[in-house]
Structures are given as C-alpha cells and as structure tokens.
Design a protein that fits this description.
Layout: E1 2-3, E2 5-8, H1 24-37, E3 41-45, H2 51-63, E4 68-74, H3 77-87, E5 93-100, H4 103-110, H5 114-129, E6 135-140, H6 147-160, E7 164-169, H7 176-189, E8 197-202, H8 209-219, E9 223-226, H9 240-249, H10 251-254, E10 256-257, H11 265-276, E11 293-294, H12 297-305, E12 324-325, H13 333-342, H14 349-365, H15 371-382, E13 389-399, E14 402-412, E15 415-422, H16 426-438, E16 443-451, E17 460-468, E18 471-479, H17 482-498
Parallel strand pairs: 1-10, 2-3, 2-9, 3-4, 4-5, 5-6, 6-7, 7-8, 8-9, 11-12
Antiparallel strand pairs: 13-14, 14-15, 16-17, 17-18
The protein binds 3-methyl-2-oxobutanoic acid.
C-alpha cells in the first residue's frame, strides 16, 4: 500500500483563519499533539511575519523529534533567511517557498511577466537549497494557472532542487475532476517529476477541499496538506480528520494509507478548537458532536442490531467514546429500552408501554431527552413511593447575620402538621423541622445539589441518602427553588423508609 504523507498546517495556514492566533506555548502544545497524532510534516509558521513568530517556530523545531518541521517563505531572500533561522534546529527541517503563477496573480499582485516569475521561483529554490536539502515549492493559485506554464514552473523548480512540489487550489475553485486532471497532467508532462513528491493544498471555498485532495491522491499526489478541523484562510482547508479517515475507511478503493494514529484525532481536534477559540460545528464530519449520534427510530433500531447498518467508522477509531443515541420523540421504543438498560433500570415488559407513553409526552414538549430527564421520569413514576408525608409549605429565613430558621407544613394521613426549627444553615433548619414532624430517626449520609439545566433559571436537583434503622434510602427532587428541592428529596427518602420494598 502506498503511503500518503500528511502535511499539517494548522500552525501556519490555520493561524490565517480570521480571529485565530497562537502564542508560542500554544503552538508547542499543538505541535506535540500533532506529533502524537503521527503527522509527517508540521508547518509551524511563517517566520518572516514577526520576530515572535520566528521564536515560536524555533521552539517547535527544537522540541519536536518525530516530524519534519517546515516554515513558509515567499520567494524572497529575507523570507528564506528568516525561515531557515527558525527551522534550522529541527531534526528534519524543510523550507517551503511559494510564488503565485496564475495570470491574475502575476498581473495584479506583481505586475510581472511569466519569465520573471519563473526566474524568481528558480532563484528562490536555489537560494533555499544552500541551507537544506528538503525544499518544497508551491506555485500559488496553481489551479488557475495555465497548465503548460504550471508544468514549466514545476519542472524548473525540481531542476533547481525542489524535493516536493505542492499544487495549491488557493481559492478553492477547482472541482474534483479538474484537480484529478491537473495532477495527472503534471505527472505525464513534467519530465523530472519522479524526482519530487507531488503534494496538494486545497481550500474549501466550495466545500470541496477534501474531495479535491482525495481525487488528487487518486491521480498520484502522495502528500496532502491539511489542517485540524479544516481551519484556514476564509472557508479553510481540507480537514485532516476527513482526509485521513477517507483514506483509512476507503482503503479498499484507494489502496493507500497514512502514518496517522487515528485514535488521537478527536483529542487533537478538541485541543485545536480550545486553543483557537474556533468552535467545531455539531455536524462536522468525524469530530462534530453529532458525527456519531443517532436519533431517528429506524437508524437507532439498526444501530442497536448491528452498528454497521449506519456507521461506516467506529467512533473509538477516532478517539470518540462510542456512539451517542439521542432520544427524541422519533427515536422509537428500542432506543428508549436500550437507554433505560444502560442507565441501570430494569422495567418489566408490562410496565414498559406506560413508560414509553410518558416518554413520548415528555419528548413532544422537549426536543431532546437527556439522561436526567429519563431518571426523573422513571424514578418519579415507575418507582413512585407512596407519599406518607407530603410537603405543603416551606419557608426559610436566612442571611449572613440571621440564624437560619425554617417553618415546614407537612400532610400525613390527611392531617396537616406544622413545625419550626433553627439550624446551621437553611437546609439543616428545614430537615430539623421535618424530623420534628415525622419523628423518623434519620442520619443524613449524603447531600448533593447540582444544576440539571443551564442558565439562571436552571433546575437544581438535590439528591440525598439517609440511614434509617441501619438501611439506606435515597431521595431526589428537582426544582428551580433549591430549598423546596431539598425538602422534597429528604421527604422522598423518608417515604421510602416508610415503605421499604
Ligand atoms: O493557499 C495557498 O496557496 C498557500 C500556499 C502558500 C501553499 O497557502
């Protein structure tokens, strides 16, 4: 199987994404993760852009041992000097030189004719070659460059010493069949092409960056330039996770492989997202939150019978902890059954229909049913305990200069009873008042409170564990008022103690 080299450019091209910039520590952290991921080349930056960038690339070059470290340079001596200064300490350094070759770039950016551009490209490669043997050349905007001229440039830079020729679709304009034709044409018409690696660098302006990269590989490219999560200038670049997983998943057709340890993909994606502040869209291929989430009943049913019905990759292969079944009103009974089982509930067949109906009612109100909703649904209904004691009223007076005092009213066998108590805190006061009414001897073993939903109006869920005559009983209640939730959770535990199963 032929190997495809993965050239990772999150630290250079990714940094060109609007709003994205790395400090040297972040660059190093990402580079170290890219090394673990197993990419072949890390493009660590564009050293001429600032003294800080030279230092950042230097830091990466000095620490990373298993990957080639590349720096980008325009076809100018000062750029190449800065680039070498930055990458020279790398175990395997590369200088990546570029120059635009399309008519529109030559005319409007440089005001130069082809001959002059060709001369500059060759001189730049020769100059870089004085420093190191590993030289990559990119004819910028190659996909809009006339093919004859593109071949001439490629042939000349290889003669001048370029060991990698990268064909960028700089503005994401090419279609997959065009990319295929360009690479094929270069392979067939550049006499010395066997002396260099053919690379591609595709932008995603038309959403075709991955498709273009893969067709280029099919046509003979053996290096793909990509970025994690597809970050990069404008709409970004071919995303590493897509390119690598396409090669990995469709080995049967492509007959290629990469060095990437795919199990590190998800971790790398999240690291890059955290350090760039660029969020990954939920439906992003491979690394989006929904990439392995199943919701529709027919799909969930298929997945539960055999995951291959709707999964072409194992989530674990990219470092994701299994697939996610998202419960909605359309998920079906199998999904609910499976989820309840996973949450540890054994519901008798005869009770299941009722649970399912309650689930549907809730799912019609809420878009997505979370584990907590299910717990509340099941524990509140199926395992409902008879309410020996039910809370009618609770009032607490508290403050930083007041002794917390609670007044509680509870109904028991039709009788309303009221008590008041002070306590170490408002919850303690409430629990003492409850104890005075119920006279059940409890020992509070555990009390926890957490917010079930987000925002200021979040539901607070209180869970308590009490010991009554040597046995443990649990109580749980959610409310927007945490004092009420505390009182009801405690009473639920006491009610369980009154009706032990
Ligand atoms: O998009 C592009 O053309 C580039 C080159 C420098 C490879 O980033």
């Amino acid at each position: 199987m032929e190997k495809v080299y993965i050239f990772e450019s999150s630290l250079r091209e990714g940094e060109q994404a609007a709003g994205c910039g790395f400090n040297p520590r972040s660059k190093l952290e990402i580079a170290q993760q890219l090394e673990r991921l197993g990419v072949d080349i890390i493009e660590a930056g564009f050293p001429i852009s600032s003294p800080g960038e030279i230092e950042a690339v230097k830091l990466v070059a000095s620490k990373i041992k298993k990957c080639t470290i590349a720096g980008l340079a325009r076809s100018l001596k000062k750029d190449i000097d800065a680039c070498w200064e930055a990458v020279k300490k790398a175990k395997s350094p590369r200088i990546h030189v570029f120059l635009a070759t399309s008519p529109i770039h030559m005319k409007y950016k440089f005001g130069k004719a082809r001959e002059e551009i060709l001369r500059m490209a060759v001189e730049a490669v020769k100059y870089a070659k004085k420093y190191t043997s590993d030289i990559e050349f990119s004819p910028e905007d190659a996909s809009r460059t006339e093919l004859e001229f593109l071949c001439k440039v490629v042939e000349s830079v290889i003669d001048a010493g370029a060991t990698v020729v990268n064909i960028p679709d700089t503005v994401g304009y090419a279609l997959p069949m065009e990319m295929y034709r360009i690479i094929k044409y270069i392979k067939e018409n550049v006499s010395n092409i066997h002396k260099a690696v053919i690379s591609v660098h595709c932008h995603d302006d038309l959403g075709l960056a991955t498709a273009n990269s893969i067709t280029a590989v099919e046509a003979g490219a053996t290096q793909v330039e990509c970025t994690m999560n597809g970050i990069g200038e404008r709409a970004g670049n071919a995303s590493l996770e897509e390119v690598v997983m396409a090669i990995h998943t469709r080995k049967n057709l492509l007959n290629k492989n990469t060095n990437v340890n795919t199990k590190e993909i998800y971790k790398t994606s999240r690291l890059v997202s955290r350090l760039t502040g660029i969020y990954v869209q939920p439906n992003k291929a491979i690394v989006g939150d929904n990439a392995f989430a199943h919701s529709a009943g027919i799909h969930v049913d298929g997945i539960l019978k055999d995951r291959r019905t709707y999964e072409i990759m194992k989530p674990e292969d990219v470092g994701v902890q299994g697939h996610k079944i998202v419960l909605t009103a359309r998920s079906g009974r199998h999904a609910l059954e499976d989820k309840l089982k996973k949450l540890g509930y054994k519901i008798k067949d005869k009770d299941f229909q009722k649970t399912y109906e309650r689930f549907l009612k809730l799912a019609d109100k809420k878009r997505e049913i979370f584990d907590e909703d299910l717990r509340t649904l099941v524990e509140g209904e199926i395992f409902k305990v008879p309410e020996t004691y039910s809370l009618q009223y609770v009032n607490v007076v508290t403050g930083n200069k007041t002794i917390p005092t609670a007044t509680v009213e509870i109904k028991n066998k039709g009788k309303i009873m009221e008590e008041a108590s002070c306590g170490d805190g408002p919850v303690d006061a409430v629990y003492k008042a409850i104890d005075r009414i119920t006279k059940v001897k409890t020992r509070l073993l555990d009390y926890s409170i957490k917010s079930v939903t987000g925002g200021k109006e979040a539901l607070g869920e209180v869970a308590v564990k009490v010991n009554v005559q040597g046995k443990e009983f649990l109580g749980r209640h959610a409310s927007t008022d945490i004092i009420e939730a505390s009182a009801k959770a405690y009473l639920e535990a006491i009610n369980r103690a009154c009706h032990p199963k």
